[in-house]
Amino acid sequence: MDNEKEEIVTLDEAAVLLKMSRETLIGYIKNKKAPNFNPPETNGLKTETGMFVTLHKNGHLRGCIGYIIGKDPLWKAVTELTVSSAVKDTRFRPVQESELEDIDIEISVLTPPEKISDPQTIEMGIHGVIVKKEFNQGVFLPQVATETGWDRETFMNELCSQKAGLPEDAWKKNDVEIFIFTASVYSEADPKIAAKLKGLK
């Protein structure tokens, strides 16, 4: 997706969020305390919508935590989710101070989920997907398909088995709910964002 076509946050607002995330990561890992922020009261930063914070170390996933439905303004959510991604993602050991310089931060700002009845409408690389059956639920962000090169069948099989604890073909059954959403992804590694970040220092 073209980030500039998404209007939930502007590139300037995304840069503010990434700067806050970086300062939170450094502050929490070094001092076990996140900074207090007073960001500008812009529409995007005040929006309550889904968000994920993803940490990469030398190109490899180092932590990723988020929520699909917004419960706080994005400027507050980014602090909580940065800390969670760094120290509460149970797939990884907590981030250490020695790793900070090797970590890049990426944030994904999500649109509200939309329930669908036909999985064939899912577009790889465009749609994130949630599968849900009773107490079992799993989610993949849109970039998972891009990063893995999976086709729709593999994507959905892995989502059910890896993330939701369901049989691979559960998504083909009528008793499983499927929701889609889109995400605007902003990364410190993006030259456009990097330029904005320099202007904030």
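(the above was protein one; protein two follows)
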Amino acid sequence: MAIFQLCGRATAWLDDRFMEERGRWLLWVPVALACGIGLYFALPEEPPQDWALQAIGATFLPLFFLRRWLWALLPAAFLFFAALGFGVAQWRAEAVAAPVLAKSLLSVRGEAVILDMERVQKGHRLLLGKVTLTGVPVAETPERLRLSVKKSEGLSPGQRIAFRAGLHPPPLPAIPGGYDFARSAWFGQIGAVGYAFGEPEVLAEPAADAWRGALEQLRQAVSLRVTQGMAAPYSGMAISLMTAEQNALPQDIIQNMRASGLAHILSISGLHIGLAIVILFGAVRFGLAAVPALALNYPIKKWAAAAALAGSAFYLGITGFPVPAVRSWLMAAFILLAIIADRAQASMRFVALSAILILLAQPEALLSVSFQLSY
């Protein structure tokens, strides 16, 4: 009898401690998701497809039966979200599945549409979609290619081009535990990488409704305008801060910035998003405050927050949606939305919510250094 009383007191004490921490329960959700996602990527081989559903089902049922005992419900909820993370990672890997080049092709002709362009020291690095390769069956043709082009004059996103190139499967890690480009390429649906021989031929210009390439064309126009208006290497620094194209900077400057510990300035992340929001928010609010009729009768702070939210989203698009910038913008967006909704602006919940959204949308981001440094 004494043992049952002792157990009852222990469970009551645990319930009280858990209730005291109820404001932090949400902070453990991304931790649980990350545990499940990490378990999936740590497996030596692809698990059966029904593992995820079985794990989610097996951990969801206890939530119903243990709902009256908080000391048991919260650990069960942690296991449920871990199983959910495992399932999201497996489903994501299956959803992006695309053909990967089986062997190297030293010379092959093909056609593709330019999806993205990244400036490098000599030419551009192209991301190509809607690929057709001569002599390669459609079922074995990669969904996307990453192609280095030295002669890139006249190329722009949205164009369909013909090329002759040497293609190779995405490379595996150079050393055990090293960066796995093949894994990153899998989630980007990049089935081959290579280099073009000569200058690609433009077969068709972007369609009038090809809005997908409009933003990339704007990025290229901004880079070109900066290059024409500023001398190197200053233009390269401006381009890297405005459009996230670091390859516009000479390698010696990049190495010097790495050696001095300032390389993070070149990566569009919280610093840049924060500056953009502060400038937009301050400019709009102070501008509206200069008009007494508006400042005294309308919520100009909310207007400024809305303008900063929209403007920072546009800046995020100009930078090409890099992962660190997306994370920073999500956290800033929660704060701006809290201002608009008259809620508290400072909370760790915003960090947890942004991590949850990223892990659910892109579970592979867990393995990136930028995600780990951010969270």
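Reviewer note on protein two: Strands lie at 105-119, 124-133, 144-149, 160-168, 190-196, 201-204.
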